[in-house]
Amino acid sequence: MNNTVSGFSKLSKEEKINWIAKKYFSTPEEAVFLLKNYWNADEKIQKLHDEFIENTITNFYIPLGVAPNFLINDKYSTIPMAIEESSVVAAASKAAKFWSTRGGFKATVINTEKIGQVHFTFNGDVSKLNLFFAQTKSKFFSDTESITKNMQQRGGGILDIVLKDKTNLLPNYFQLHATFETKDSMGANFINSCLEQFAKTLKEASQKYELFTEANEEVKVIMSILSNYVPNCVVRAEVSCPVEELAEKHIPNPQEFAERFVQAVQIAEVEPFRAVTHNKGIMNGVDAVILATGNDFRAVEAGVHAYASRNGQYSSLSHAKIENGIFTFWLDIPLAIGTVGGLTSLHPLVKFSLQMLENPSAPELMQIVAVAGLAQNFAALRSLTTTGIQEGHMKMHINNIINQFAANDEERHLIKNHFKNNTISHSAVVDFIENLRK
Known about the structure:
By secondary structure, the chain is of the alpha+beta class. The protein is 48% helix and 18% strand. The chain contains 15 helices and ten strands.
């Protein structure tokens, strides 16, 4: 069947929905009903959501939860988390409460430098190119003054521009490698606007440069784009306490627990197969806050995983040690995020989340996000090294199984009561439901 359609983007929202429903569903009216059932009753809010992307047909809901009791740098916060995975918010909340009585989380922004590049080729005398760049560098700054004016008033702007010779990687390949400070904005549009002007200046100035006399001495711009790899835009989050203070219900021997915990982290430091899952757990916390605050979790994910591989092998983002009877667990993570621009001023729930966090600056939000990642990692490792990961996860996941089988209130009560003292697994819950209904 030929499923192509011409002019789809020009169709009205209603026409798009009707086309999809008739084309792909045996009961089109049910498909239409489902899509419209997720529309916001407030037409203004729905119109706002419709205009976030192209070809919008409905809203795709992800639960927004909160994790309270986060003591960060001696101040309590309730952290918003948008995520569909069961047990993540509960785990973060549990870790927050655990550390709130042991000094809380400490977080520090190490740097906030962001990066953009103009990629180009030059097949000529490299010494001439170096001289050209030295003589033209100031023009890159002056030609972007109209773009950087407002950012400079907020304390940001272009930090530096360097010429990088990458001909060892590709023939004739060079870069203008620029660093930026974008203050409370993530800065993607600002950086890309600067880069495109750099490219224009580079091309025009090189064409007029008197020393480029040979036919092959021509600058050819390939592309201009920011990088989501920001190894100098890093925040650290950490927790520490005397080993004996780790004791609780599931940690009767805190010294043994601390040693096993450190070993678990060390395994993730040296074993990539474990490191990927280890870091995925960290990103459960990070992504949930990134989404709730209207930031780009895909950019963050790409940058974080590149950072985890910066030493030539994929490794753990978190680290742990025991020194002089003190247990310390910490995380360094690159985060290019913002609290102004983009969805932060448009999406009602993003504005709600930021207000609940008391309208943090971008560096403050970096600290909160990093803490959420560390808390999630601590909760996972505590479970893995004590009771096992499935006990807590399946207690939360049981609701999904119950809902999958549309259990009524009486069945729900009987199921949960039965599995208070029995091992939870998907098959066990299904078997119990089926026997219940016989």
